[in-house]
Amino acid sequence: MKTTFIRLISTSMLAILSLGAFGGCSSTKFVRVQPWERTALTDYTMRSDRDPLAVTMAEHIYFSRESASGGRGIGGSGCGCN
Amino acid sequence: MQFRHKFCSLCLIILACVASGRAAIQVGDKFPLLDPSTLVGGTPPATEGQITLVDFWASWCAPCKMSFPRYAQLYAKYQAQGLVIVAVSADENQSAFDAFVKKESPPFATLRDKTHKLVSQVKVPAMPTCYLLSRDGRVRFIHQGFHGTTTEEDIRREIESLLAEPSPPS
Fold it and tell me: Is A16's Cβ below 8 Å from some Cβ in B?
C-alpha cells in the first residue's frame, strides 16, 4: 500500500515536471524574446559602451589588474540580426 | 500493470505538449496569405502566379538597411519577368517604419505587420529573413540574415531558376 502511494506521488511529480519542461519547449513565446520583438533590446540605452567615461574607467581597471586591454570589439546591439 | 498504464499516459501527455508547438514555415510549405486587415502601409500586391519574395525586416536591424538597395536592384531587373517583392516590417512604431521607408524609398511594396500576426504565423527565425515563393505560392528558398553579395547572388540565381520553371496550369 505504501509502495503504491509512493509510486503514485513520484509519477505525479514526474508528470508535472515533464509538463513544465516540455510545455515550455513547445511554446517558444515563454522561452525567449522572439526575433521580431527586439525593438527595446536594440535601443541605444541597451549598449554597454554608451558611456565613454565608464568604458575608459573599466579599461583602466582591466589594464591595471590584468595587464589586459582591448578585446571589446563586438559590434551591434541586442537585435541578434544575422 | 497499473504503473505501465500511467507511464503510457505520461508519454502521451508529453507527446501532445511537444506536438502543440506550431512549427515554423519551411521549404515546401504554403505561405500564408498577406492579409490586408493586419498589414498597414498599403495594399498587398497581387502575388498569384508570380514569383514572390517576402522579406521580413525592421528599421532597427542593420542588415535590413543593407538589403533594401540590393532588393531594389533585383526588383528592377526581374519585375517585368514576374517578380513581386513584398517587404513586411515587424516594427512596433509606425513612425520608425515611416522614417525608414522614406529614407530608403524602395520601389517595391513595404507593409507593416502591426499586430505581428504574420511574423508569428511564419515564425520568422531572424531579422531579416526572406522567403522566395514559386508561382504556386509555396516556399522554395529561405534566407536567414543578409550577408551582402553572397546572399544577393544566391537570391538572383534562385529567382532565375524559378522564372525558368513553367507556369502551373490555371
Answer: no
Nearest C-alpha of chain B: how many angstroms from A60? 31
Which residue range forms the structural domain that includes residue B110? 25-164
Please give the backbone phi and psi of residue B20, each rounded to the nearest 5 degrees, phi first. Answer: -70, -15
Q: Does B150 fall in a domain?
A: yes
The alpha carbon of residue A56 is apart from the nearest alpha carbon of chain B, in Å, by 26
Q: Which ipTM score applies to this complex?
A: 0.74
Cross-chain CB nearest to A39 (options B13, B60, B124): B60
CATH number of the domain residue B85 falls in: 3.40.30.10
Task: For B46-61, write each residue's pLDDT tens digit.
Answer: 999 999 999 999 999 9
Domain count within chain B: 1
Is position B12 within any domain?
no
Nearest CA in chain A to B18: A26
Q: What are the backbone dihedrals phi and psi of residue B19, each rounded to the nearest 5 degrees, phi first? A: -70, -25
